[in-house]
Specification:
Layout: E1 2-7, H1 17-20, E2 27-28, E3 31-32, H2 33-42, E4 48-53, H3 57-64, E5 72-77, H4 84-89, E6 98-103, E7 106-108, H5 112-122, E8 126-134, E9 139-142, E10 148-152, E11 156-163, E12 167-170, H6 182-190, E13 196-200, E14 205-207, H7 211-222
Parallel strand pairs: 1-4, 1-6, 4-5, 8-13
Antiparallel strand pairs: 2-3, 6-12, 7-14, 8-11, 8-12, 9-10
């Protein structure tokens, strides 16, 4: 089982940090978040990685040069301007009949064995791990007369589920691959044929979209709160 990790984007929302450093190399506890994501897979027995690089690729290439993590790592230059769909498509020659893929900036405690089992049971071309939406704002709860009875700090909104990455795909998906953007083109293109499933994970998920996110994750790590670190059976 191989995992494609999307590590080539420009990370504009994390500017100015990413003017000098690709977002996958932003640190969490002294190591790049890219390595933290890879470790999520490795702890569950999946140790073959295909890293799609692009923006400031030389920093990622230099980091892995001469380092041995006990994993098999292929680095593929998919271009500085290539979109998410194009990056996975550019790695297809290295992939088997079933493979995984994810973003380089999302930490999650999903059970990869259960995810893979769900994908195989559903028999679709792709499975997306989804998590409940956590509001970025606190909310007000009031009765029908407008009287406030509670405040909720950034609640989890379980009526709405978002894409967390941690995909499983069958290689047959490339016969149906249209467009350059994974989220706006490729996945919506699978809907008419009912070829897309979601594995709902009601656990920990946190993405490093901005510099503020990096600071929050770093604080969690320094406090010893690392819910994305787990040990499970090999997937």
């Amino acid at each position: 089982m191989k995992v494609v990790i999307l590590a080539g984007g420009s990370g504009t929302r994390a500017y100015p940090y990413t003017e000098y450093l690709p977002k996958p190399m932003m640190p969490v506890g002294g190591k790049p978040i890219l390595l933290r994501v890879m470790d999520i897979y490795a702890r569950q027995g999946i140790t073959e990685f295909v890293i799609s690089v692009g923006h400031r690729k030389e920093i990622i290439l230099d980091y892995f040069d001469g380092r041995d993590f006990g994993w098999k790592v292929d680095l593929v230059d998919t271009g500085a301007q290539t979109d998410t769909g194009g990056r996975i498509h550019g790695c297809r020659h290295l992939l088997g009949d079933t493979f995984m893929a994810t973003y380089a900036d999302g930490l999650c405690d999903v059970d990869l064995g259960n995810l893979l089992g769900f994908h195989r049971k559903m028999g679709k071309l792709a499975t997306i791990t989804s998590v409940p939406l956590r509001s970025q704002y606190g909310t007000i709860e009031a009765d029908a007369h407008g009287v406030i009875n509670d405040f909720r700090e950034k609640p989890v909104m379980k009526d709405h589920w978002i894409n967390a990455g941690y995909f499983v795909m069958d290689k047959r998906i490339f016969d149906h691959w249209h467009g350059e953007n994974l989220e706006r083109d490729v996945f919506p293109g699978l809907l008419p044929g009912r070829n897309l499933a979601t594995f709902r994970h009601d656990g920990f998920f946190k993405s490093m979209d901005t510099y503020k996110d990096q600071q929050e994750i770093e604080a969690m790590y320094s406090e010893g709160r690392t819910p994305w670190v787990r040990t499970a059976q090999a997937a």
